[in-house]
């Protein structure tokens, strides 16, 4: 939530997935931090509609879409490897409608080893250990190579034409939202028309595969955009920010922004301005307001 402050707390590296898993994996990410003794850094992240497979000191686990803001306090020196799944991918990998429940956390050995023909639980746990060791040694490609075969085996066992069609529709909707393809004031009906279905059917699709509604996705994306605009220029009038991201007035932006971030746009602007000043002025940009640490999102 505070890109300038994040610059001094951690580093973020993103890595592409294997081409044959690109329909399920958006990217892999590595977060590292090295803080002085007694120092700590807390990063708060706005959730996206994605699940993550995370290898860290506390274990190897699958984290579903967070219920709300995700925060993590960093100490000492450490690193984390994450695999950001595409919206709906966890439902496919698990084959279980309950997998889309917000706030879900499952050991990777449970999430990936319960699939018929999938990897054995000890093999999943060992892959997590190897991935974390590789990240700590600075071998990011080796870390990704440790988790990729697990996902490949489970995907091969779970992919079906129906699942592929569902994920393709979800991906089309999300890409349109992110690209602003339908304009800043697009609604659920516009998204449904894009994929040739009704608003009600689109809502059922997202409820069953993603765990959040299309309206949630639209609102959260607009809040992400607003947060990035404010972080880039804390002095920009908030009415201009609201109009730029598709709100008819500043009050509606304030309502959604406060619900998502737990703070008002004005308070967020003051926080970003203070961090920029402390870290050296306008050039002090960090990883981005929508980047993640730990099981939030990157």
From TrEMBL:
Pfam families: DUF6597, HTH_18. InterPro entries: AraC_XylS_family_regulators (IPR050204), DUF6597 (IPR046532), Homeodomain-like_sf (IPR009057), HTH_AraC (IPR018060), HTH_AraC-typ_CS (IPR018062). Residues 172-271 form the HTH araC/xylS-type domain. The keyword Transcription regulation applies. It comes from the Bacteria. Keywords: DNA-binding, Transcription, Transcription regulation. It comes from Krasilnikoviella flava. GO terms for molecular function: DNA-binding transcription factor activity; sequence-specific DNA binding. This is AraC-type DNA-binding protein.
């Amino acid at each position: 939530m505070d890109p300038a402050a994040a610059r001094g707390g951690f580093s973020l590296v993103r890595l592409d997935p294997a081409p044959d898993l690109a329909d399920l994996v958006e990217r892999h990410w590595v977060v590292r931090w090295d803080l002085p003794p007694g120092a700590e850094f807390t990063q708060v992240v706005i959730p996206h509609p994605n699940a993550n497979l995370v290898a860290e000191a506390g274990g190897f686990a699958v984290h579903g879409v967070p219920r709300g803001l995700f925060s993590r306090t960093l100490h000492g020196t450490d690193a984390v490897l994450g695999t950001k799944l595409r919206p709906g991918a966890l439902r496919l990998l698990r084959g279980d409608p309950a997998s889309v429940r917000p706030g879900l956390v499952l050991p990777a050995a449970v999430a990936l080893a319960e699939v018929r023909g999938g990897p054995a639980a000890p093999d999943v746990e060992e892959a997590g250990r190897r991935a974390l060791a590789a990240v700590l040694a600075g071998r990011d490609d080796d870390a990704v190579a440790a988790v990729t075969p697990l996902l490949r085996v489970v995907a091969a066992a779970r992919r079906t034409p129906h699942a592929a069609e569902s994920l393709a529709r979800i991906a089309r909707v999300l890409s349109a939202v992110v690209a602003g393809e339908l304009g800043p004031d697009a609604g659920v009906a516009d998204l449904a028309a894009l994929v040739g279905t009704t608003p009600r059917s689109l809502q059922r699709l997202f409820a069953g595969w993603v765990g959040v509604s299309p309206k949630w996705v639209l609102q959260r994306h607009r809040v992400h955009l607003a947060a990035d605009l404010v972080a880039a220029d804390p002095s920009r009038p908030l009415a201009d920010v609201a109009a730029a991201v598709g709100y008819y007035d500043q009050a509606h932006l304030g309502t959604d922004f406060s619900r998502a971030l737990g703070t008002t746009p004005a308070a967020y602007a003051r926080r970003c301005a203070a961090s920029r000043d402390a870290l050296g002025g306008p050039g002090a940009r960090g990883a981005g307001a929508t980047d993640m640490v730990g099981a939030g999102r990157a």
